[in-house]
Design goal:
This protein is mainly alpha-helical. The chain has a domain of 95 residues. It is built from 4 helices and no strands. The longest helix has 19 residues. The chain is elongated, with a radius of gyration of 18 Å. The N terminus is likely disordered.
Length: 143
Amino acid sequence: MPDTASASDIPPAATRGAALAAALVALERLDEVGESIEDEWSYVTALAEAGRSRLRTAAGVDPATPLDPDRAVAVAAACAEIARIVDPHRAIDWLSTFPAVVELALGAPDASGPGPATGSGSAVRSDPGPATGSGPATPPAAG
């Protein structure tokens, strides 16, 4: 049976450092679940490292800084959502999304802009997926 944590199961963090610690644990869980797809290992690893970097930056310099209770509840709710993820593809999707959610919850100054895991090219996918060009899917028949 999957872990079905709720926001009430995860106590809100009192400081930015405690919120960072909880978010890093949740990110590690996403990393572990996502790495179960062997073909995506390098992509998952790059996303997780970019996410850890974003979270550390968002938490700020002083981990002892008190965290507003509403922000603490938001981080706890995000971590609870991560605890429910068992599908590796969903975990991979959340690896790039979760750090941005935590940045927003923490009120990080740069939370509104794209970060390293959401479009700057910091993680290169090993499998580009199917071609999506505008041309025909099969070559035209020779006439």
